[in-house]
Structure formats: C-alpha cells, structure tokens
Amino acid sequence: METDLNDYTIIKEGEAEVLMHKKNQVFFNKAQVNNRDMSIAVLRAYISKRKQEHEAMLSKRARSSGKVLEKDVSETSKEENPTANGEDNGKTNGEHEVTTQDGPKEAAKTAYESARRELKPPRVLEALSASGLRALRYAREVEGIGQVVALDNDPASVEACQRNIKFNGLMSTSKVESHLTDARVHMLSHPKDFDVVDLDPYGAPSIFLDSAVQSVADGGLLMCTATDMAVLCGANGEVCYSKYGSYPLKGKYCHEMALRILLASIESHANRYKRYIVPVLSVQMDFYVRVFVRVYTSASAMKNTPLKLSYVYQCIGCDSFHLQSVGRSLPKNNSVRYLPGVGPVVPQDCTHCGKKYNMGGPIWSAPIHDQEWVTSILSGVKSMKDRYPAYDRICAVLTTISEELPDVPLFLSLHSLSATLKCTSPSAALFRSAVINAKYRVSGSHVNPLGIKTDAPMEIIWDIMRCWVKNHPIKPQSPEHPGSVILSKEPSHQADFSRHVGSLSKAQAKKVARFLPNPEKHWGPKIRAGRTITSKHVSLLGHDAVNGHLNGNHKEAGAEEDEEPQEDITEGEPDLKRQKTTEDIASTS
C-alpha cells in the first residue's frame, strides 16, 4: 500500500522524521520533546556506565583468576619439579617453567579477551510506541545501542510506526522492529530480556509496572512516566491508593511527593520477585513525572526496603510535615536485625499550631537522584548541545537537580510559611542565610522555584519566621488562627539574617537560567488518539487549532456529500458521530 504524502505532515525531531496523519489517528505530543531528550541523555550515560562496570568486573575477574592460576602453578611445579622430587626427567628447570607458567598466563589472557566480547549492545523495549518517534530517536541518536523493540496494541499505531521506520531509512529498519501486541504479555514472556525498558503511557503506568520489573535485566534501566498528576497530587486520594498503594497529601511539595509515590510503587512491584531499585534520576517536568531507576536482584538487599519508605504527617493548620520510617535496622554482632519503625513521631495535635495531622504515604524517602549520574548526564548534555532540541530546558532542570540536597525528602514553600503567619515573605536569599547561619544545610528544588529543602527541624523554621515577623510587624489576627498560635510563642533560637555567601546556589551566582517558561501556548497534555476534537478541548489545543479542525471537518463533510451521496455506511460512521457530538455540544451550551 503506497503512502500519499499529501495526507501526512512530516515532523522532524532530533535526527528522526515521522509522518503524522492530518487526522488524530496516532498520538503525538510536541511537548514531550523534553521527555525524549532527557531519556536520550540518560540512555547515553547508562551505556557508558554499563561499559565501565563491565570493564571493572572483567579486571576483577582477571586479578582473581590470576591469583588462582599462580597458586595452581606453584602447586604443580612442586609436584613435578625434578629437583624437589630428587629425580631428573631430562628437562632443565628453565624449560619446565616455560611450559607450566606461560601456558596458563596465555590461557588467562585468551579467556579475558573472549570475555570482553561478551558485552552485547543493550536491547531496548519501548512498551507503548504510538508513532515510534521515541524508538527511532533512540536508534538513530544513541551510539552503541542494540535492537529497539517498539510495541503497541493499537493497529493504527503499529501501522504508523512501521511506516515511519521505513521512512527513516536503512539504519532504522535494521535496528527498530514494531509489533502489534499487549506490552504486558510481551514483557512477561521475556523475563530479564531487555537492558532498557521505557514506559511512557497515556495516564497511569501502574498496570505495566509488575511486568516491567520482571522484563528488565539485572542492572538494567527502567524509565517510567506518569501523567495522571491530579491523582498523584491528592485530587483523588483513594484512586491513587488503589493504583500506587500510597495515599497522597495536598501540599506545596505534592509534585515531589508524586515522584516518591511512583518510586515506592515500583519498589513494591520489584520486591515481589526478590528485586529492588536504585533511582539514578527523578524529574518533574511540564505536566508529568519521570523516573529512571536501575533494577537489581538480591534477596538480602531487598530487606532494606522498609528503611527507604516513610509515612508523612502533615498538619492541617500550618502545613508542617514530619516523616516516620516504615522500618529500622539494628546491627547485631556480624548481622543486621530488621525491626518495625518506632512511632508515632508526632503527638495527636501539632506542637506549633494545635491542629490535627493528616497522614499520607508510604513514600520513597531515600535519595531520588544519584549525584554522580546527574553530573555525568549534565556534562554529556553540555558536550552535545546541538543534538538536543530541548537543550535549554533539560540543561536547566539538570542544573537545578545537581544542586539539590539528595538526602532531604520533600521541601518547604516560603510563600506558604508566610501565608500561615499572614506576613510579608522574606527573600529566598535572606531565609536561606538564616538557615545556614543556624548551622543547617539548605538548597532549592527543581520542582518548585520557591521550594526550599533543608535538614533544619520545623522548630527552627518557625523560630526564623517569628524573628522575621518581629522585625516586620503584622496586623493582629484571630487568637484561634494557626499563625496567631505560632506567633504567641517566643522563639528559642534567635535568627541571624546576615547575608551568607552560600545563600545563592552556584547557578544563581552565575545567573544560569533554572526555570524556563513554556516555549509556546498550550504547552501541555493533548487528547487521546482517535478522540473527536470538539469545543471542549480549547484549553488543551487553543481556539485557533480547534476552530481550524472543526471548519476542516465541515468542509470535508460537505465535499463528501456532493461527490459521494451514497457513501458506504461503515465509512460514514465517524462523520455521523462527529456531527452528533457537535449537535450535543450546541444543545447543551
């Protein structure tokens, strides 16, 4: 079947080009260029790291095998040495040493060289490929990559993917293959078969996690996106619990909590198969969260999972939050004993404002980034600036992540603290200086420009705000108001607001952009493929796009009626549905 290019729009991103039908048949979102660029950057770092780990493993094996060979040679020489046995077998000692020692050394060298050839290029699985743009970019732009398998259970998407593979030439056809199948079935039938598994569904990835953690090879990379942010951020807590096994809380840190809920869910699925995860990068961008984790198998290491999870207590009055670990460990002689966490970490009422607590979680409270990886990814991105269409955005995100405190879960909002006390907000530099002068650490957050990560307890934070209000008086409030209760107490710590050199991050000091605006209007989620575009999609697509699409449909419908009055029923069904939808909207408006 020949392709009429007049019916398609050619979209170029990076080094790949795809044909997109003018009708909404296959899902494509331009805003996901940030997602794809970040994934390519991480994939390049993973391939480099994988090679380094393999070389280190071979060197270790070579050293250990060399010691074993030397031991075997020495024992053999003692047994066969004629001088040691008091016998002469007609060979000199020099001849004997050459045959017994040089042979094993040469054999070890040959074994080492053959083992070096065992590292095959990584196999990549894109579980939900749609147009195949992501798989094509992986194949064309990532050096050293192996086979890329693109899956989808929508026939139109698979057809589009196969068409785009051919459109991109020989390199794509030799590396990328597309299959019409259920991704869950394919992953379950290929356990530990893929070095990289990419999950980027439309909505929640929860139904794919169980099969995905089984399909990743040991030490492999699992890349997972979740776009159901309303659920993860607390709009429907019961839905989040049913999908991810954690209850979300509404707070300024809700987007970081979404990241940690997703990580805790992946860890839970991995533990069922004696596996565990190690996050290397976790980002919140645009309208979604994206995590990059490595998956390992170890029944003993899996026991540490409760130490990485925590429940969150959040005050309903002042938004103070506290974390309680699910488990704890107790060293005993040469072993470790695992015990349940000790709690509660908070009383029934908040010690600051007297209100009750909401409890959420469990969430991943261990580090969500590997700073060594982040540094490596950022340097790789900067060295290949021209190969990333969204270079500015991903560089800004990675720069901010590189300066985050890795061991501090969640963050405070300066505006939220000020809103509780009904006072003017101190500048971020002054507040950070007060925290640093109190001998605590502080950093920003890539999730929120106003977010402040610190290991200072909430008592110190409220003391700093009390001292600020003393210097910047406010109008009296109701005695029952949480802010009034907090300010009624005298500060036990006198804050020092003198400017500290560490109050600005390195990026701020160098005036490096960290939070960039969207490049164009309506930069966000798009409607599902196959959905009829109507006036209710104005917020997603914009007035011009919706009006243009509706006007184009009306013209096409009029031309079809003039040229083919007796149209086949099956072909006319979509148009009838569109007309009915438009009429329904007109009647309700």
Automatic annotation (TrEMBL):
It is an enzyme of class 2 (transferase). GO terms for molecular function: metal ion binding; tRNA (guanine(26)-N2)-dimethyltransferase activity; tRNA binding. It catalyses: guanosine(26) in tRNA + 2 S-adenosyl-L-methionine = N(2)-dimethylguanosine(26) in tRNA + 2 S-adenosyl-L-homocysteine + 2 H(+). One of its GO terms (biological process) is tRNA N2-guanine methylation. Residues 68-81, 88-116, 574-583 have a biased composition (Basic and acidic residues). Gene3D superfamilies: N2,N2-dimethylguanosine tRNA methyltransferase, C-terminal domain, Vaccinia Virus protein VP39. GO terms for cellular component: nucleus. Residues 56-116, 544-589 are annotated as: Disordered. NCBIfam families: TRM1. Dimethylates a single guanine residue at position 26 of most tRNAs using S-adenosyl-L-methionine as donor of the methyl groups. Belongs to the class I-like SAM-binding methyltransferase superfamily. Trm1 family. This is tRNA (guanine(26)-N(2))-dimethyltransferase. It comes from Arabidopsis arenosa.
